[in-house]
Specification:
This is Helix-turn-helix domain-containing protein. It comes from Rheinheimera riviphila. About 50% of the residues lie in helices and about 15% in strands. It has one domain: Multidrug-efflux Transporter Regulator, Chain: A, Domain 2. Helix 1 crosses helix 2. By secondary structure, it is α+β, with helices and mostly antiparallel strands.
């Protein structure tokens, strides 16, 4: 399981960091844990599945 930071997820999804944090707060993108600074970390496979779902629903 590869973990991605907020910035890596934002780059992958082509959105801003703050939006990734909001997705985590709203449980639309579930965090797999937290880093040393308390920021959420995400499983790479979950992020890929979220991107596919969001594209099917009309975009991120």
């Amino acid at each position: 399981m590869a973990l991605m930071t907020v910035t890596e997820v934002a780059t992958f999804l082509a959105i801003q960091d703050i939006r990734v944090e909001r997705l985590a707060r709203e449980n639309l993108l579930v965090a797999a844990g937290k880093d040393d600074n308390g920021k959420p970390m995400f499983d790479e496979e979950d992020v890929k599945r979220y991107k596919i779902l969001a594209e099917r629903l009309g975009g991120i």
